[in-house]
Design goal:
alpha/beta; Rossmann fold; three-stranded antiparallel sheet; 10 helices; about 30% helix; about 15% strand; globular
Length: about 300
């Protein structure tokens, strides 16, 4: 069964997706994002897709993808089409690079690792990276080449409406600069793969964590260059520990398997996730389908949410 919709289908039905990288178990932030995405489209009769973002073969492992899909299924979240694996889609990414090269938008980046490290040093001691200043922009390529390649993004501010954050206006030049689309180690980069896959799969809405909000304007520019429609975006507040520190994949913290060991059932977890998304007045055991009638973006809190102390 194909996961790619016809143009007519994509116009008539909402299409959402959840696209984890198989580098470890899904934590509660990932699961909350997956559930919100599933509820958003399924409540309106749409289709929900799972895509495995394993384009970085050095970091991604099939065993983690299998675990992630199994955990999603345990919560009742299953793809409405065959699961797409980015590692099997190189021809699509090469075609996109050729398209950008023909436009004159693609250029070879010869910056060394040391150059990039110097450019990445943030001005105030925080962990944010400075945007790439386009120092290699003059080295345009006429076709896809096995070299580090960046795309020259059009200048200007991108305005868009986020379902949770409201009106947004960002300039990619001040956030990411020209992103790498193909790396020297032979990997297609996240920015290219995610935009191509969303476009080719007919995805109409994207739900993801607030930590990815700042790349949205960059993705808008790439969508325009590649001829794709802009999906709707919703950037959820992050799930934190009881101490309000950001959750990560450290030691499987707050994963489904870790919660099972503490006696938390999938139904209890769904009740907490549903409550955190405004579907329930209090956390109580339920199934994902029980939440469909109660989901509305108007009820979803925009801020972060802390997990119960007993779950850590």
């Amino acid at each position: 069964m194909s996961s790619v919709l016809t143009k007519a289908e994509s116009l008539s039905l909402p299409v959402g997706r959840f696209a984890p990288s198989p580098t470890g178990e899904l934590h509660l932030g990932n699961l909350r994002t997956a559930l919100a995405s599933w509820l958003s489209v399924k409540a309106r009769g749409g289709r929900w897709l799972i895509r495995i973002e394993d384009v970085d073969l050095a970091r991604c492992k099939p065993v983690w993808a299998e675990t992630q899909v199994r955990d999603l299924a345990a919560l009742g979240l299953e793809s409405d089409a065959a699961i797409v694996w980015q590692a099997q889609r190189s021809e699509w990414y090469r075609a996109a690079l050729d398209h950008l090269a023909r436009q004159g938008s693609l250029y070879r980046c010869r910056c060394s690792r040391k150059d990039l490290q110097l450019l990445a040093s943030a001005p105030h001691g925080d962990e944010r990276l400075r945007p790439y200043p386009g120092r290699c922009r003059a080295d345009k390529v006429a076709r896809f080449l096995p070299d580090a390649l960046r795309v020259a993004l059009p200048a200007g501010v991108v305005a868009w409406e986020d379902r949770l954050c409201g009106a947004q206006a960002d300039d990619p030049a001040t956030l990411t600069g020209d992103p790498v689309l193909y790396r020297r180690d032979g990997c297609f980069a996240y920015h290219l793969a995610v935009v191509v896959d969303d476009g080719e799969q007919g995805v109409t809405e994207i739900v993801r964590g607030g930590d990815l909000r700042e790349v949205t304007a960059t993705h808008f520019r790439l969508q325009e260059l590649l001829g794709y429609q802009h999906p709707q975006y919703a950037h959820l507040g992050l799930v934190t520990g009881p101490d309000h520190a950001r959750l990560g994949k450290r030691a499987g913290a707050a994963s489904l398997s870790a919660l099972r060991e503490r006696g938390v059932t999938p139904e209890e977890l769904l009740g907490w996730l549903g409550w955190s998304l405004g579907c329930l007045e209090r956390p109580e055991a339920c199934r994902a389908t029980d939440l469909l009638a109660h989901f509305s973006w108007d009820r979803v809190p925009a801020g972060s949410v802390a997990i119960p102390a007993a779950w850590t």
